[in-house]
Prior knowledge:
Blueprint: H1 4-13, E1 17-21, H2 29-36, H3 42-50, E2 54-56, E3 60-62, H4 75-85, E4 104-110, E5 115-119, E6 130-133, E7 141-144, H5 148-157, E8 176-180, H6 181-189
Parallel strand pairs: 1-8
Antiparallel strand pairs: 2-3, 2-8, 3-4, 4-5, 5-6, 6-7
Amino acid sequence: MGSPVDSAAVQALSPLLLSDYAVGEQVDWLRLSRSWETDFPSDYVAFMSAYGAGGISDAFELLRPDEFSTEDADGMTGETANARAVWPSASLPTEGSSSPKSPVIAWGVTAGADVVCWLTGNENPDRWPVAVVSRDGFSRWTSYECGMVEFLRRVFSGELVACPFSDATLWGTGAQKFVHWKEERRLLESGVDPWTGEPDPLAGVGFD
């Protein structure tokens, strides 16, 4: 999995996605593919190798590639379930099916709770378009004929027709900051805001 083309796509994104904390992700892709009953796009594989999962400018979360689960879960499985819940029912697997093969698989979620997915109808994952389901109360789907890495580049550079998200923090604003989820957690646990580098004002504060 992965190719020079996909590495080039990640390189094209890198001036717009800056990070001191891009440590990559260790993923058993064969096991993951068996779990989801599909391979994953090679640009996603290349991105996970270069950056890993984590946050972007405190406005977007790139989901960790995790194994499919039929139980309550968060991450990729949970957000995929959220997206499927508002996907046209005629396109979903038949009732009682235990197959994880879904018309959509989530790979990101925005600060505005929009879910960013692949449309998985094509047998070749490298041809899966990106789709965004807006969580603004209307559950509107919009699809984009590009892969996830190119989609992010176009969002940051403002090259789409309009902002695809309900929150415009990332739209056309140029370079963004990426923080790997492990580093994000470490900084928060040490009382530092990962996005400002300043002491976290909520550190140690309990909530009832």
